[in-house]
Automatic annotation (TrEMBL):
Family that this chain belongs to: Belongs to the FMO family.
GO molecular function, one term: NADP binding
Alphabetized SUPFAM superfamilies for the sequence: FAD/NAD(P)-binding domain
Keyword list, A-Z: FAD, Flavoprotein, Oxidoreductase, Signal
Record's protein name: Flavin-containing monooxygenase
Amino acid sequence: MRISSLGLCVLLPVVTAYSNQVPLGEYLPETTQSPDYYQFKWPIRRVAIIGAGVGGLIAYRELTETGYDVHLYERDDSPGGNWHYSEETPVDTPIPSVDVTIGDYVPSLPPRGAALPYVEEYDDPVENESRKRAHRAPKPIWDSLTSNAPAPVQQIRELPWPAGTPWALPNRKLQRYLRAFASWHGLNNNDNNPNVSYNTRVELIEKRYDADGKEAGWSLTLKELISTNNNKLRATWVNEDFDAVVIATGRYNAPNVPKIPGLKELAERFPEYLVHSRQYRVPEPYQDQTVLIVGAGTSGGEIARDIIKHAKKVYQSIRPETFPIPERPQGIFLSRIPHNVSIVGEIKQFITKGSQLSEGLVELSNGTVLTGIDRIIFATGYRYTYPFLPQYHNSSLGINDHAAPGEAQPIVTDGTHLRSLYLDAFYIPDPTLTFINANFGMQSFTYAEFLSLAIAKIWSGKADFPSTATLWKKYAEVYKERRGYGRHFQFLGAVRTREGLRFFQGWLNDAAVKYGGKQIDGLPKDTAEVSAVWIRARFGANGNYGINAVDVGRLSAAGFNTTGFEDVSIDGTESWAQDLVYNDYW
Ligand SMILES: Cc1cc2nc3c(=O)[nH]c(=O)nc-3n(C[C@H](O)[C@H](O)[C@H](O)COP(=O)(O)OP(=O)(O)OC[C@H]3O[C@@H](n4cnc5c(N)ncnc54)[C@H](O)[C@@H]3O)c2cc1C
Ligand SMILES: NC(=O)c1ccc[n+]([C@@H]2O[C@H](COP(=O)([O-])OP(=O)(O)OC[C@H]3O[C@@H](n4cnc5c(N)ncnc54)[C@H](OP(=O)(O)O)[C@@H]3O)[C@@H](O)[C@H]2O)c1
């Protein structure tokens, strides 16, 4: 059953849709929980972490130090997550995107009823190559990519960058750094830690029940895929039981490719010339080509900078922002896009013609038609999805519809945001299921430390956790404060990040006084100052436009309303400018 309070408003920008909503509070699921603190239904000892990116590695450290029996599963062959660059690219993504429940992969399960461990071997070298890529998922970064946060901000506090480290961090340096952190904790792929499994993808996470039919934790179906000595691939499926789970699988696994009229037909005709930004590696293949980049978030902007030196012409399609929050000068991001990139408005439709992509037409919303396009890159972002948790996906709900009380409360609906999580981390109906780094507009390298410590303390009873009724009440307040669902729902930004970390610090340090255990320091006081310098260098005076950070001429040519942005300059201390350090919300 669905409670639809939206009707046509679903089609309107989120801010409009939100104002028509019945408050979430009216749909709060019923609970019999005592009004006091939450009581876990079973003791938590054995814990699984999914993902060996910075979030999973930090969670492993924190939970192990607290005394849990921790097991880490990583689909890739080494640690580092997003920062493991490889020339190898991910398998093709559907263009346009398909239902988000399918996510970035369809879970691969052993035959029903098969005894575990269940083993299969494959020997076709061509199929094996794509099997391996689909399993490990090469990461969505490119050769020239450097950090968009400065080194003093993007670091794990236990492992500070040496003094004098250049602030822009090349991706390989970040990968080496994360490998070093993993090694320090005995988690690297050459450490032979029996509690860490690389090449192992989590296929399914299900509730586990005891002999009396009571919930008793989680059961994981895991698939390891490795090369054998005789050039075959061997897949082994096993089941493992855990008391609690940390999902640290990152936010950038499933590409978002918009459903633009005519796109499906174009992609079917010329699949090799349309890619998502996660497949982009180097600019040379774009030599002398006319390229259309759709989207001007960080990926779109940085890829435009990379290929403009090689391409014959680059068009960049942008669209008016739909976010109700945060408020900021529209189009500020254009200040990093070179002048010789042609900014154009939103695409209305693709028209396939002739035997080559370049013979087709791209019609924009303002009626302009682009011709002669040789290649298209969709830098249109990602969707949240957890293919291994199908029971918490419900793509039939409208953007601000809620599941009825008594029904399963979904975590993923349309992939733009996550639901039913307290602090964007604890699944409210069962907080033995948790998520690390599920927000954006924050700094993953530091945020994960606070979250991991909170999880460790709560599960061990060393910090009070509110009752289920209180969690839903707080959730309803957050829903209201964030002005309803949409991509902005997961956004933190500089101010909320600072407030959030202060909240964690106060909560966890109070708990340490009450129950003993570790305390945690706040972030260094100069973070805001470091950010201000970095932002001025990246977007302000040293950017393309001198002191005036918004190129209104370019924006209005692309159909944007630029009123009020004529004289926007960046000092770097403005709260919206501080958000740019994380640079990942437009
Ligand atoms: C192009 C790009 C550039 C970025 N640049 C910056 C930047 O400059 N600065 C910055 O701070 N952040 C940047 N980010 C954000 C980046 O995601 C974070 O820096 C950081 O990597 C987040 O860490 P994580 O551990 O949460 O996730 P990830 O690093 O994504 O790690 C998740 C891990 O989970 C594994 N995994 C996923 N699914 C499964 C499964 N089913 N089973 C087992 N393992 C699984 C993945 O293989 C991966 O290793 C960028 C992101 C992108 C896409
Ligand atoms: N270190 C680096 O240099 C670097 C480089 C790349 C990425 N990153 C990080 O990687 C993460 C993901 O960034 P991302 O840029 O891939 O994704 P993103 O931030 O989600 O940006 C996607 C962009 O595509 C736009 N878009 C979607 N559909 C569109 C359409 N039909 N027409 C025009 N535009 C459309 C979106 O606009 P709406 O806002 O309207 O939806 C949004 O601006 C971020 O954390 C970012 O910081 C870092």
